[in-house]
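Hi C.,

You asked whether I'd gotten around to modeling the 246-residue construct. I have! Everything is below, sequence then structure, no commentary in between.
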Amino acid sequence: MYVPYIDQYSAKCMLGKLSKNIKQEGSVLSWESQKRKHIVLIDDKIDFGVLQRIGGANFHYLSEETLEIMKANFRVKSSPGKSVVQQITQNFSGKKNRRFRNYLNRYGKLSVEPELRKISDLSDMLKEWSVGMGSKYFRDMSTKNKFFIENGFHKGCESVFVYKEESLVSFGVLSPIKDGRCAYIIGKALSHIYPGLAEFTDLSVYRRIGGEFMVNLGQGEGGLLAYKMKFPGAFIQAHYDGSYEV
């Protein structure tokens, strides 16, 4: 079963300060950035009328099935990517999951809150994250994370904001569960200062949701991919980026 990364909530994590002419028509979210058009298909659904009107754009996170439909109707260039999907069961018993239980115990006294106290908390935390952690990832998406929350795109999502006293030290935002699936939209943790905090944050938001579900964590390379594959039930799912022309 294909688990889409792009839904009506996660689609907006693609936007940033340079995004212009943002428009949602049917299942298509489109925008322009640095003179290039971009689209994503919400829930991986094609709307041919909208795509015809747009005329051509870069696309992101298509399934193989949807890519083949696009190829049959448009001129398409594409390249494969790797998303990580996790099957969340809430069961972290057993020896192999000891480290996850340790993280829950280690950071159990931190304050896990459903709302951000103030936007400056996020700004301060992301500055620290970019200095201490940003170089370890294939892309530093911290400015888009701030844009997403500043514009209230996280409203209606499943969120945790983790505070140590007055300082924000991590956060995670997931889209609401739909048909047993969701997307891990954005998240950051000051793991260079607090080892295991990222795992604690992920576990905290999974436990807040409760039950069993599948979550697409989006793409990753290098250390980020290795991190996403840590959790039990994780597997790689192919997606495709590229461009189309009418």
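If it helps when you're writing up: Residues 10-81+239-245 form one domain.

Thanks,
B.
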